[in-house]
Records
---
Amino acid sequence: MGFRMGIVGLPNVGKSTLFNALTKTASAQAANFPFCTIEPNVGEVNVPDARLANLAQIANSANIIPARMTFVDIAGLVKGASQGEGLGNQFLANIRETDAIAHVVRCFEDGDVVHVSDHVDPIADADTIDTELMLADMESVEKRLQNIVRKVRGGDKEAVQQERLLRAALAALEQGKPARTVEVDPEDAKQWKMLQLLSTKPILYVCNVGESDAASGNSYSDAVAKMAAEQGNSHVIISAQIEEEISQLDDEEAEMFLSEMGLEEAGLDRLIRAGYALLALETYFTVGPKEARAWTIKQGTTAPQAAGVIHGDFERGFIRAETIAYDDFAALGGEAAAKEAGKMRAEGKSYVVQDGDVLHFLFNT
Ligand SMILES: Nc1ncnc2c1ncn2[C@@H]1O[C@H](COP(=O)(O)OP(=O)(O)OP(=O)(O)O)[C@@H](O)[C@H]1O
Ligand SMILES: [Mg+2]
């Protein structure tokens, strides 16, 4: 499936450092100069979920296979990017291909690390990036409106719908509001998504703080938190530099390091989970002696569609899904006990899978 989260922000704010920490590699060059990254770096990460290890233990599974998510480390954007400034439009195209945005803002003071506008001001920085995304949208909306004029005149139904949506987007953008503020009717949702506007993508602000602020944040991250809340977006506080160090340690060392810092878990885990939630993703499990595995679905997915994530044949030949809620599976100590207690349900084609369901699909091919 591959849900993609783009790491976006001004140059030299710590995007590649964060990417390396997330992917536990040093595959992205991270260095103290602006525009260090040009080509996007793409990496997959495991989605941390304590339930999976627990299920594997109960069922004595030989392998554990977590859910995966993709992060893309994108080049720094600057003011004027939509007009080709900095490294320009190419990067806007990289952002277009993602499902959501992790917007990194610099919340650390460090005289040695260059800031493109010379002083730390995450609110102004975030505004610069948001504005560029909106300007890029405006340009693409205007271009598309011109391109469909003929079809609209000819009465092409799809073009008429598209024009209406493009006009709604333009009206918001012209007021300085991101396209995500437009209320879209359910019957327009598909077309709207196909417009692929940058300012409709959900945003998670990542406050990159210094080492000593990793546990409690600082006044910069407080300001970002407030701004994010006003926009209806979420935020996480992280020290990319520390996270990169932690990612190099083994589990036991990492735990000690975290507790010394006063942190309960790695910031990356919080970030990945927040990204997962932002994309409205959920997890169901398949559990057996061979493997315990987490599968990713969109909220609202039906049982046959969920089966289709494993294999198309499972969806086409779907008969029913034997379903046990995670809590029942864990509390009762496994499939047999859950079944005994009447906690295994046979669910049909219209069943909407719930986060944490342990599923066994029956199908014919
Ligand atoms: N929390 C932090 N505290 C102090 N320094 C940091 C922190 N996070 C990153 N840095 C430093 O900031 C510099 C820039 O980091 P990085 O290369 O990851 O930025 P970037 O956003 O990817 O930049 P570019 O847009 O140029 O690719 C590096 O020297 C890195 O070590
Ligand atoms: Mg970089």
---
Amino acid sequence: MRIAGAALNQIPFDWDNNLRTIRAAIEQAKAAGVELLCLPELCLTGYGCEDLFLSDWLPAEALARLQDIRPWTDGICVCVGLPVRLQHRTYNTAAVLRDGQILGFAAKQFLANDGVHYEPRFFVAWPAGEQKTVEFKGETWPLGDLTFEHRDVRFGFEICEDAWRADDVRPACRLRGKVDLIVNPSASHFAMSKTDLRYQLVVKASRNFHCTYLYANMLGNEAGRIIYDGEILVARNGHLLKRNQLLSFKEVDLEWTDVDFGHDLALAAEIVPLPAPDEYKELNQAMSLALFDYLRKARSRGFVLSLSGGADSCFCAVGVAEMVRLGVEELGVDEFKRRSGCFDGAPVAVQQGAGGPAKQELQDTPATQGAPAPPALSENQQIVNALLTCAYQGTVNSSDDTFESAKELADSLGARFFNWTIDEEVAGYVGKISGALGRALAWDTDDLALQNIQARVRAPGIWLLANVQNCLLITTSNRSEASVGYCTMDGDTAGSISPIAGVDKAFVKQWLRWAETELGYGALRHVNALQPTAELRPLADKQTDERDLMPYPLLNRIERLAFYERLAPAAVLAQLVAETPGADAEQLRTYVRRFYTLWSRNQWKRERYAPSFHLDDYNVDPRSWLRFPILSGGFGAELAAL
Ligand SMILES: Nc1ncnc2c1ncn2[C@@H]1O[C@H](COP(=O)(O)OP(=O)(O)OC[C@H]2O[C@@H]([n+]3cccc(C(=O)O)c3)[C@H](O)[C@@H]2O)[C@@H](O)[C@H]1O
Ligand SMILES: Nc1ncnc2c1ncn2[C@@H]1O[C@H](COP(=O)(O)OP(=O)(O)OP(=O)(O)O)[C@@H](O)[C@H]1O
Ligand SMILES: NC(=O)CC[C@H](N)C(=O)O
């Protein structure tokens, strides 16, 4: 039998989009002679409908829309994920359709309730062995713990999380011997290196339960924060039969394979491991797709970025350029432009361009005024030019190094680049408040306030630039800064999308070195030679992030031990001492205290960050992976006892 999985790029309750991709997948499958097709979990509504799953109307609408799919299933068996509501309870199901008929609804038995998943809030887990009936306009179908048969192949279901439970409780253990095929429609979030886990899960299940296992994941940045890699896996008796390229820019990624169910296949003696994933590359692909989907689904015209020439903002700029490069590589220029929704079919008019005078000669003017004609931009650079506007907003505390870094990078990407200073606005506000208070504000008495006003004064201008162009304003915070609140609220946190807030600063720096050498972004040599600095204090002070805080790798380690491993402060310190050769225990104690104090004080800031992507195995976004009280004891007793 020819069986297939199709990864779909869905949008919560965007019926037109979701039915269009479902129909396209079915048509592609039929054209390829596929006999059984698995579509992702909840693909009809989208996985991320959140509390709408608790309404009566959304599941009812989904059931009504399922009827539209029936005529498309002539000659093929298709599994379509949707919520079904019975007696005020919503179930996460996969409907099986064939030849225009609905055969039944298999229901999810184990709900995902960790990390970024909160399913028990929306759904009720289905009890093993039970069945009920769904009614719609005079027709009835079975719902629950069901098996099906198609052309003499018996099949049953695990729906995503069902497969992540122990072998002696998951549905597969009851399907063993009763079915030839287990179908798994999934919405399994992307995280770096996670594909290996999923591969092991699927291939081992096919061996342990002596079956063929067909797995199809959701694709793309569905609803803002979570990215799906669109993985399709088919395994039989411990042998991998099919695995696709992940993180496609396509709306539908269909993969099929032939399985001879009439002949048994010897069980694999061992599972062949996947090559170790390249996390830099994975992150690049995931972020590119996440940005592209966010841009088009938010119906925006591009991105605006306050580009300091430092690591975080350079990462974000390269992220947009990579979105263009990878998207064009896969879709082609015309399809990339069409799908982005940013081009209206008109030829791209290049705005500003490469070249431009040095920082000292150029204040408050667009980068190209009076400059020599810029070199012609490549096709990708022209697209970047249309989609990315950057501005360097210097102060007296900014260095030439960061300006050069920003300008050269923006020019090399093709981005539109502006340069202006904000000293006048800073002086205006400082003067106003000094006057009101009747005393001059000074660095020795008002350090933080004077730092923050600079970061804040950068916000209105860059927001204005974003607004006039109907663009998304990128904010550049990384996870390490978010943990300790090393940012100015309504200043450098201003923005509507925060692409790298899920990634720690040490990783950001490593990734930039990789991007310079492996992706060929030579202009990154400036930033790769710089020490991260906020440049908010007078230059003579030689401010660096790590002097203000602690070494970033250490900050990252404390954060992981505290909130991924969930250790108590004393255990975190003990662990650090144990794993740091020649450790200065007193210094480590200071850092641990500083981390927890800043962490607790700054929960309110994390609550106010712009939406960010889940990219690593955890993040600190309270609306995603990590919940923490805004007001708390702040680990006072625990830190005092250290
Ligand atoms: N629980 C709570 N709920 C609500 N608000 C709370 C609060 N606790 C304090 N606050 C308020 O928070 C305000 C202070 O927060 P905020 O104004 O953001 O500033 P703050 O956290 O005091 O200082 C910002 C820090 O970030 C660093 N920074 C800033 C900008 C850029 C960079 C960079 O790396 O480039 C670094 C800067 O060096 C400084 O260490 C105060 O007005 C305080 O009342
Ligand atoms: N001179 C500047 N021009 C434009 N934007 C700036 C400037 N200084 C700071 N910003 C904005 O504030 C953000 C926060 O600064 P931060 O120092 O944390 O990041 P970075 O400068 O990109 O990287 P690094 O911390 O490695 O120097 C920057 O990413 C940028 O968006
Ligand atoms: N949708 C789901 O059930 C996802 C849960 C599963 N543990 C995963 O991370 O892939």
